Amino acid sequence: MSETAFLLGQVFNGFSVASLFVLAALGLALSFGLMRVINMAHGEMLMLGGYLAYLTLHVVPGPLGIIVAMPVAFIGAGIIGGLLEWSVIHRLSSRPLDTLLATWGVSLILQQAARNVFGAIGVEVVAPDWLNHTVSISGGPLVGLNLPATRIFILLIAGVVLGGIALLLKKTRLGLFVRAVNQDRPIASAMGIDSRRIDLVVFALGTGIAGIAGVVLALLGPITPTVGQSYIVPAFLVVILGGLGSLTGTTVASLIIGFISAFAQIFLDVSVAQVVLLVFVILFIQVRPQGVIAVRSRALEE
Amino acid sequence: MFAKDWRFRLAIGAIVMLIGIVAPWIVTSYALTLLTRFLDLAILALGITLIWGEGGVLSLGQGVFFGLGGYALALNLKLAGLTPGNLPDFMIWSGVSTLPGFWEPFRSPIIAVLGVFFIPGLFAAGFSWLVFRRRVGGVYFALITQALALAFSTLLISQQAYTGGFNGLTNFSTLFGIDVTTNSFGTKLYYTSLMCTVLAYLGLRRLLTSRFGVVLRATRAGENRVRFLGYDPTPYKVVAFSVAAMLAGLSGALFTLAAGVISPALVGVVPSIEMVVWVAVGGRTSLWGAIAGTLLVNFAKDQISSALPSLWLYALGLLFILVVSFLPNGIAGIFSTEVLGSYHHRLRVLKAMDAE
User: Fold this and answer.
1) Chain B closest CA to A130's CA: distance in Å?
2) What is the mean pLDDT of the segment spanning A274-283?
3) Cβ pair A302:B224 closer than 8 A
4) Comparing C-alpha atoms, which of A8, A45, A4 is closest to residue A25?
5) Which one of A6, A192, B46, B265 has the minimum C-beta count within 10 Å?
6) What value, to the nearest 5°, has the Cα angle with vertex A163 and ends A159 and A169?
7) Local confidence band at B306 (pLDDT 50, 70, 90 cut-offs)
8) What confidence tens digit (pLDDT) does each residue in A12-23 have?
9) Would you call B144 an interface residue with chain A, using a CB distance cutoff of 8 Å?
10) A contacts of B316 (beta carbons < 8 Å)
11) Are the C-beta atoms of A217 and A124 separated by less than 8 Å?
12) What is the pLDDT of residues B225-263, one digit of tens each?
């Protein structure tokens, strides 16, 4: 295997890890920008998406099961997310730290519920045949470069979701409302926007995306009650790096975190790579405490 | 009125102290070991009251400082139990032939005891200064400390040959030449824990009524306003965080002695956030609430998880949601001076009406 092929393989790996982080962090970043709250049960929405994929594949076996699972997981996780927003998070609005604690409670309950329903041992989702192969390059300077089809598929999904959300925010009436509330909640409300409903819709949308991320995770490994926990901490770091409610910021931050994880894991063991990641984030906020993309404002954040 | 309230509090305090002192004679030895452990944990909870309740800074990584204190003492305990020239058993199993350098200083129990305070304290000071000086706080700080807890516990697990890995460090025999396995040591440890908890309580009370406490509380209420008044809130927050970390270190060291073990499972993400719930239940701005909350939640955990293990996580989850949503000032909120005050006020009004 040539040097370039190895390097390109790792670049591809970085992109593929980053695309997972984008899917996991996008919903968090959207509602964080809007409401300044972090949903600690977001990881359990990934888990829910994974289990929904598992169930869907039982009902719809065959090559297209995984495609059907996407909307199922999106809607399922979206509904649960909406309920969560309506019942817990909305009550605690303007108390972000308390929201953190209350949603952590929700996360514990969902994990234990999954343990009781599906068992502590993970369930497997078998990738369909059309995803179960590797694109190998057998000639030219890139000989030996292997690209697993699932990884390419994940990249595609992340691209489609990102594009969809960007279009939704830029081109639709709902997107206009979201941007308005993002900029200035009281003024947007004064203009007749029901900011309460926007919160609910964006939150449900965000958890829905996490549901899709869960389907994708199911292709990579078994779904366990704590599967969300392993992805959620990097997703939080993405939110910190990304800056408030910026789609570009979240994407760039996911790429940074994804590449650091992918490259650190070549040279170091996984646990040391985690320390490297944390040190990087702390150093990064020394330079840019507002994140990659800073929203300029004359208001003083309190 | 005020004097009466003051005397009332002193009386309650005296009664609680008395119960604490005679406890070894009235409870079973099993209950006493639990009480010892939970009092040790209460020291950490007092620290959370300082940074979260008074400083408004939520840390989801107190387990890290608890662990640093616990491991600092455990290194000494492990080395003290060895015959000279030998290595701890897990190192031999992992094929380590010489003692790693960072273990060496802990041969001295004095260095280990100093390490219990200063390793977490200095680490917390450096870490929090880096974050707070860039005015990163609130939710961001909570998430960064959680990432810290995750990194710390996975590092401990993966460096099996140097840290004992997932099983942690256990099988202790002597500290300062005293046998730690006897019953009389258990009683001594109980009184030490009780004394440390009381000292931490009194010390923090003193700290919070000082000018430092006032600025810290003002920072929680409005950090920018504190800046406008000419104060830099950063050092106040850093000091509060470091003091809390030192208390967590002491808590970890005492707990390690009481439980006879320190392991990654005690210091990771989940235990770290569980520590916050003790304080939330007790009442985040109340020092006695932190102690009461810690004892209450932990005794409940012991009862529930021995009867119905899977129920405990549901109960814990619900506890988080309910306390935060409906009882933000916890148990102490029920007894707060405002409520008592209004009760006294009503009483006075009623008496005045009677007299007429």
Assistant:
1) 36
2) 88
3) yes
4) A45
5) A192
6) 150
7) confident
8) 888 888 899 999
9) yes
10) 105, 108
11) no
12) 999 999 999 999 999 999 999 999 999 999 999 998 999
Min mean pLDDT across A82-86, A268-272, B186-190, B210-214 is at: A268-272
Contacts of residue B155, Cβ cutoff 8 Å, sequence gap at least 6: A271, A272, A274, A275
- Neighbour tally for B92: CB within 10 Å: 12
C-alpha to C-alpha distance for B280 and B284, rounded to whole angstroms: 5
What is the separation, in whole angstroms, between the first and last Cα of chain B?
21
Q: Rounded to a whole number, what is the distance in Å from the CA of B305 to chain A's nearest CA?
A: 13
Beta-bridged to residue A148, according to DSSP, are A134
Write the secondary structure of chain B as one string of H (helix), E (strand) and C (coil): CHHHHHHHHHHHHHHHHHHHHHHHHHCCHHHHHHHHHHHHHHHHHHHHHHHHHHCCCCCCCHHHHHHHHHHHHHHHHHHHCCCCCCCCHHHHHCCCCCCCHHHHHHHCHHHHHHHHHHHHHHHHHHHHHHHHCCCCCHHHHHHHHHHHHHHHHHHHHHCHHHHCHHHCEECCCEECCEECCCHHHHHHHHHHHHHHHHHHHHHHHHHHHCHHHHHHHHHHHCHHHHHHCCCCHHHHHHHHHHHHHHHHHHHHHHHHHHHCEECHHHCCHHHHHHHHHHHHHHCCCCHHHHHHHHHHHHHHHHHHHHHCHHHHHHHHHHHHHHHHHHCCCHHHHHCCHHHHHHHHHHHHHHHHHHHC
If residue A249 lies in a helix (H) or strand (E), which one and from where to where?
helix A247-267
Task: For B116-157, write each residue's pLDDT tens digit.
Answer: 999 999 999 999 999 998 888 888 899 999 999 999 999 999
| Contact across the interface for A97 and B58, Cβ inside 8 Å | yes
pLDDT, mean of residues A89-112 = 89
Query: Which amino acid, one-letter code, is at B314?
Result: Y
Q: What is the DSSP letter of A91?
A: G
ipTM over 0.85: yes
Q: Are strands B174-175 and B261-262 parallel, antiparallel or unpaired?
A: unpaired
CA atoms within 13 A on the CB side of A176: 6
| Structure token pair of residue A161 | 């979701």
Of B134, B136, B224, the CB nearest to A300: B224
Q: How far is B149 from chain A (nearest CA, A)?
A: 10
Chain A residues closer than 8 Å to B138 by CB: 96-97
